[in-house]
Structure formats: structure tokens, C-alpha cells
Design brief:
The complex is a heterodimer. Chain A contains five helices and eight strands. Chain A is of the alpha+beta class. In chain A, a hairpin with a 5-residue loop joins β4 and β5. In chain A, α1 packs across α2, α2 runs antiparallel to α4 and α4 crosses α5. Chain A is globular and about 50 Å long. By secondary structure, chain B is α+β, with helices and mostly antiparallel strands. In chain B, 71% of the residues lie in helices and 8% in strands. Chain B contains four helices and six strands. In chain B, strands 1, 2, 3, 4, 5 and 6 form a six-stranded mixed sheet that branches. In chain B, β5 and β6 form a beta hairpin. The longest helix of chain B is centred in the first third of the chain and has 108 residues. In chain B, 19% of the residues are buried. The chains are: A alpha+beta, B alpha+beta. At the A-B interface, α2 and α4 of A face β6 and α4 of B.
């Protein structure tokens, strides 16, 4: 797996320099999940985010009756798991591999190491997470208006 | 464990002396992995061969028992065939007696018929009187009695012959079955012998597999010793601390930190992907429980505001959502 090529395409690492991307590549750990395997469960404590290298994952959440509802599907080079990393809450959804998938895992501790070495790069990562969250908020706000 | 700067360590790792040592270690580790694989395979082969030998021995014993069963059945059938043969001889003898009786009655019958014809002829002669008629009636009675006797004996003769034939059939069937059982017993006994030979061969194979496992075990021990010697050699030659998976060097100017040089390729066990001869930075207290890619340290790396680490790395304590909420 060419980590650097994957990370450079991810919206999470936009605006990072090559040197910063190389460091993140060294810090990331490749993980493989077979189709149907759960990456993490709703309600778990989480300290990692994941960048999708290949395959596809589905994001699921239990409704009031306890049935799992599909929220969305994600593919390369999208990322997930960042919410628990930032707000330190329990995982808000379950993520499961829909097909055999390869991910890159970055733990909070690894990102802290990144920050120690590349403070500006880390700031961009946080900004990128904020951009994605902001986009989701705008999308959610737009829905009632459209309805 | 001498203190080094990252550039010095990179220089050391690229030196021919280090590369030569690394080549020897890598070759020893590869040989060790191969020997361990051979050892595991030999152990598995020995266990399988032993189990196979036990099963083959049991199978051979079962087969021999089946051969004995066939022999027993053949002996019983042989006895039955002999009984049937004796019974047939006896019946033939009785039949002969009856046949002779039938023949006697047959001749007597013939004589009586002739006498009856003659007596009847006599009654037709002129002057034949009552005595001639009486003589005809007497002969007629005798003839009728002889006919009844003939029919009775002839029926008995036929019945006896049927019994003789039935006994011969039974004897023939029993003899045929006996022969088959004997052949079957012989064949199964040959099978059992082959299986005993197979079991013996498997026992010899087990011994060979055990010897192979012992040899591989000795090889593994020797290679482990060689690896340990190479690691000890590295510790003295390169002035480092040598673990099994990493070589450690103190970081110059950063007393609580160390560099470690990976000797393994491991994508799963550590917080990041570890490559052979990759250089990582670790806190001396935590060691390889948390690895950082080695870089020239930024001036602010160990200093500055700790609020971020305190927030980012302290325990996760959010609310647990109710299931389905």
C-alpha cells in the first residue's frame, strides 16, 4: 500500500506539506477488514480515526426500536471516527466493512506525536476536520428548509 | 548504551560493519524461522504418523478378527456339510431298501397279473365251474392287494428320493458356502497381514518423524543461540542495548528519550507500522509501547503549552448513549 498517495488524496490532510504527509504516513497503521467485519461499535469509547484506502464501509445507527439504520456509505479517500476523537464522546454510530476494505488507522496518541513535530500541519488537520463537520452541519440545516 | 544523535545513528545503520552484522542476523533469523517451521511440521508429522500407526494397528487387529470369524463360519459350514453328507448316505441306504421292496412287489404284481389272465382264460373254457370263478376272485384280491402295496411302496420310494435329493442339495449349498468362507478367510487374513505390515511401516515412519523433530529442535536451539550471540555482539560492537526485536540507543541531548532500530517487520503489534531497520523514537519509561517515527526534534517538541495533551490524551468520559436513542 502506498500510504503517501492515499493520504495526499484524503480531505483530512489537505494543505499538508510533503514532509508532514510523510510523517503522518509513518505514524499510520494499515488495518484490513473483511466484508461484514465491524470497525467499531456505536457506544464504544474511541480514540482513533480511519482513512479509507480501498473498499467501502457503511455507517449504521440504531433507531428507537433498536434496529440498525444505514446512515451513509463511505469509500476512498474519505475518513471516519474523527468525532469521538474531538469531542471524546462515545462512538455515535457503528461502522462496518461492506466489502473487504483497507484502512489507515491514526490514534489520538499518534496525532499528538504529529502535533509535537508539525504544529502547523496538525492545525490543518483540525481545520480539515472542522470543515467536514461544518459541511455536515450545513447539510443538516438545509434539510428542513428543503422539506 | 551510548548517546547518539539521529544523524549519527542513521550513519551507523548504513555503515558496512552494521550492514554486515544485519546480514548475518537476518540470515540467522530466516534460518531460525525455517527451522521452527520444519520443527512444527516434524512434530505434526510425528503426531499424525503415530496416530495413523495406532489406527492401522487397530484396523489390522479388526481385520484379523474378521478373518477368524470367516474361519469359524467355514468350520461350522464344514460340519453341517459333513452331517448332510452322512444323512444323505443313510437316506440312500433306506431308499435302496425301499427300491428293492418295490421291485419285488413289481415282479409279484406281474406274476399275479399273468395268473389272473390265466384264471380268467380258464373260466371261459367249457366245463369250467365255480372253482374256476373262485380262483379268479382269489387271484383278483391278491392282485389288488399287491397293486395297493406297490403304490404305497412306490410313493414312499419317490418321497425318499426327494429327501435324498434335498439332502444332497443342502450338502452342495453348504459345501459351496464353506468354500467361499474359507477363501474369504484366507483373503481377509492376507489383508490383515498387509495392514500389520503397514502399521509397522507407520511405526518406523513415526520414529523417523520423531528423529526429524529432534533434529529440527536441535537446529532451532542452535540458531536461537546464534541469534542471541549476534544480538550480544551488536550490544558490544555498536554500544547499544539489544532486545530481540529492537536495538536501543540513548538520544543525545534528550536524556529521557531513546532511539530504537527495528529488527522486525510488524504491521500489527505496535502503534505504527514497524519496518526492518526503521528508526523510531521512544520515551525510556514507555519503551516500544509507543513508538514515534524518528525525526530531528523540533525546538518546541518537549516544551510549550501542555493543555492540548491534557485534553487530547486524558480519559474518554463522554455520556454513554442509551441503546436505540
Amino acid at each position: 500500500m502506498e500510504k503517501l498517495a492515499v493520504l495526499s488524496r484524503s480531505p483530512l490532510f489537505e494543505m499538508l506539506s510533503n514532509q508532514e504527509l510523510e510523517y503522518v504516513a509513518d505514524l499510520s497503521r494499515p488495518r484490513k477488514f473483511t466484508a461484514g467485519q465491524v470497525v467499531f461499535e456505536e457506544g464504544e469509547l474511541g480514540d482513533s480515526l480511519y482513512v479509507i484506502v480501498s473498499g467501502e464501509v457503511e455507517v449504521l445507527r440504531r433507531d428507537a426500536s433498536g434496529d440498525q439504520q444505514l446512515l451513509t456509505r463511505l469509500g476512498p479517500p474519505e475518513f471516519f471516527g474523527e468525532m469521538s476523537l474531538i469531542d471524546k464522546e462515545y462512538r455515535s454510530a457503528t461502522v462496518r466493512a461492506r466489502v473487504d476494505s483497507e484502512l489507515l488507522q491514526l490514534t489520538a496518541e499518534n496525532l499528538t506525536t504529529f502535533r509535537k513535530q508539525h504544529r502547523d500541519g496538525f492545525t490543518f488537520v483540525v481545520i480539515n476536520i472542522a470543515r467536514v463537520l461544518s459541511a455536515r452541519l450545513r447539510e443538516a440545516n438545509a434539510k428542513p428548509a428543503a422539506g | 548504551m551510548r548517546p547518539v544523535r539521529l544523524a549519527d545513528l542513521r550513519g551507523l545503520v548504513s555503515q558496512p560493519d552494521f550492514q554486515d552484522w544485519w546480514g548475518q542476523l537476518r540470515a540467522a533469523l530466516e534460518s531460525l524461522a525455517g527451522a521452527q517451521a520444519r520443527w512444527q511440521k516434524a512434530l505434526k508429522d510425528a503426531a499424525l504418523s503415530e496416530l495413523h500407526a495406532e489406527l492401522a494397528q487397530k484396523d489390522a487387529i479388526d481385520t484379523l478378527d474378521r478373518a477368524r470369524d470367516c474361519d469359524d463360519v467355514a468350520a461350522t459350514l464344514s460340519s453341517e456339510a459333513t452331517d448332510a453328507e452322512n444323512a444323505a448316505f443313510q437316506l440312500v441306504s433306506q431308499y435302496e431298501d425301499v427300491r428293492i421292496q418295490v421291485s419285488e412287489v413289481w415282479y409279484r404284481l406281474g406274476a399275479l397279473e399273468k395268473s389272473f389272465d390265466e384264471r380268467q382264460e380258464a373260466t371261459r373254457k367249457p366245463g369250467a365251474g365255480k372253482r374256476a370263478d373262485e380262483a379268479v376272485r382269489t387271484v383278483a384280491r391278491a392282485l389288488q392287494a399287491a397293486q395297493l402295496e406297490y403304490e404305497r411302496l412306490n410313493t414312499r420310494k419317490k418321497e425318499m428320493w426327494e429327501r435324498v435329493e434335498a439332502t444332497w442339495v443342502k450338502q452342495a449349498e453348504t459345501s459351496l458356502q464353506m468354500a467361499e468362507q474359507r477363501m474369504r478367510g484366507k483373503r481377509v487374513r492376507t489383508e490383515a497381514e498387509a495392514r500389520f505390515q503397514q502399521a509397522e511401516q507407520l511405526k518406523r515412519d513415526t520414529g523417523a518423524a520423531r528423529a526429524e523433530a529432534e533434529k529440527a529442535s536441535n537446529e532451532v536451539s542452535a540458531l536461537r543461540t546464534q541469534v542471541a550471540r549476534l544480538l550480544a555482539d551488536a550490544a558490544s560492537r555498536f554500544e547499544c542495548a539489544a532486545g530481540e526485536d529492537f536495538l536501543y540507543f540513548r538520544q543525545k541531548d534528550h536524556g529521557s528519550w531513546a532511539f530504537c532500530v527495528s529488527l522486525v517487520d510488524d504491521g500489527d503489534s505496535y502503534n505504527l507500522e514497524v519496518h526492518p531497520l526503521g528508526i523510531y523514537s521512544v520515551e525510556q519509561k514507555r519503551g516500544v509501547t509507543f513508538l514515534e517515527p524518528a525525526r530531528e526534534r523540533a525546538a518546541s517538541a518537549d516544551e510549550g503549552d501542555r493543555r492540548f495533551e491534557e485534553y487530547f490524551l486524558s480519559g474518554r468520559k463522554g455520556r454513554a448513549p442509551a441503546v436505540g436513542a
